[in-house]
């Protein structure tokens, strides 16, 4: 299936947003002094990494 330029642009935007969210939650985890909060932030980062991987595999 051939994707249009507009579709590819939207997918690129989604990938950029998911990548940014992964980095933000990893940073929050790194700076957290509370181990419970740290683990929650890492869990959220992993979910967004999963989103990124799923979107990326769609266009691979």
Short description:
Helices cover 87% and strands 0% of the residues. It has 60 residues and is mainly α.
Report on this model:
By secondary structure, the protein is mainly alpha-helical. The protein has one domain (5-59). It is 87% helix and 0% strand. The protein is built from two helices and no strands. It has helices at residues 5-31, 35-59. The radius of gyration is 14 Å and the shape is elongated. The chain starts with a helix and ends with a helix.
Blueprint of the fold:
Blueprint: H1 5-31, H2 35-59
Helix pairs in contact: 1-2
Q: What's the domain count?
A: 1
Percent in strands: under 5%
Radius of gyration (CA) equals 14 Å
H/E order of the elements? Answer: HH
Count of helical segments? 2
List the uncertain runs. none
How far apart the termini lie comes to 12 Å
Biggest sheet record:
none
Shape: elongated
Task: Report the average pLDDT across residues.
Answer: 96
Number of strands: 0
Helix content: over 70%
Label the structural class: mainly alpha
Provide key terms for this protein.
elongated, single chain, 2 helices, 0% strand, 60 residues, mainly alpha
């Amino acid at each position: 299936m051939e994707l249009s330029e507009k579709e590819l642009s939207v997918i690129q935007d989604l990938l950029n947003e998911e990548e940014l969210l992964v980095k933000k939650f990893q940073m929050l985890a790194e700076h957290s002094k509370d181990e419970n909060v740290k683990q929650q932030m890492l869990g959220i980062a992993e979910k967004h990494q999963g989103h990124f991987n799923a979107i990326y595999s769609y266009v691979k």
